[in-house]
Amino acid sequence: MSKRKGAKRRRLAAARRSPGVLKTGEQRRVFAEAEMPYHAGSTVLVLGDGDFSWSRALARLRGAAGDGGAGLIVTAFDSMEDARRKYGDACAANADELQRSGARVLYGVDATAVDSCASLCEWRSACRFVVFNFPHAGAGIKDERQNAEHHRRLIRRTLRAARAMLAPRTSTAGAGEAHVTLRRGRPYSQWGVPSLADGLLGLRFAREVPFDPALYPGYEHRRTRGLAASRPDAAESWQPNSAVAKGEGSVTYCFERREQAEHEQRAERLSPGGGGGGGTV
């Protein structure tokens, strides 16, 4: 590693350890260089944020004046009571800070059905990004093949629903994108995430980019093991995931909204004898 890259990583690590806003110009410059896409002014729908620490970090980055939550819609699968029981006082504090910053915080939202959620109807076709970090069903399935198929269904259903929330391409902004972040390696590599948009109308896999948790000071990814709250070891399920915190090989898969006409044109090109012929309108 070059001295320059090493120094940059140390600055990012220092920024991550900071519990507050990136206050110095140097910190903001490092943040900007990292090409984090969720800048102020873009509408971002966050799915399945357990204790809201990632969304809180994002809001702080987007607005030093405390208004960085504008344009953020943050959802949790759990009810308010369940979320606060699982994650403790930090969850409530993060949610309160998000709301003060202008973000909307919604509980009890199923990521696979966001397109039919009444509380989200005003953001249909309006989101520049839909973000689903480290999705996990928490089903506790031991068989790797069954576990992979279970999570493939979860993510594919989420992508199908997210498509309805994404904004179309305009003259000043690209098409809306759905982002799914996972750790590299087994068992996640068996889920075949890039292929999950195949056959979905209006969505295509665009690229993958490294996920660096150091960009989000104060973010703590929580493990999900699907343990019942009544079990003695249930508290362990919600401890910080040290592997993610250290940035050990996570990746964000990016899916882009594709207009129906473009989808149909591509299907025609790929079909036998495609590329010619007429039709009715």
From TrEMBL:
Classification via Pfam families:
BMT5-like
Q: Name one GO cellular component term.
A: cytoplasm
**Where is this chain compositionally biased, Basic residues type?**
1-14
**Domain (25S rRNA (uridine-N(3))-methyltransferase BMT5-like) ranges:** 45-223
Where are the annotated coiled coils located?
none
Organism's domain of life?
Answer: Eukaryota
List, in alphabetical order, the Gene Ontology terms for molecular function in this entry: rRNA (uridine-N3-)-methyltransferase activity
What InterPro entries does the entry give? Answer: BMT5-like
**Basic and acidic residues bias (residue ranges):** 258-269
Give positions of region: Disordered.
Answer: 1-21, 258-281
Compositional bias ranges of the Gly residues kind: 272-281
Q: Name one GO biological process term.
A: rRNA base methylation
Protein name as it appears in the record: 25S rRNA (uridine-N(3))-methyltransferase BMT5-like domain-containing protein
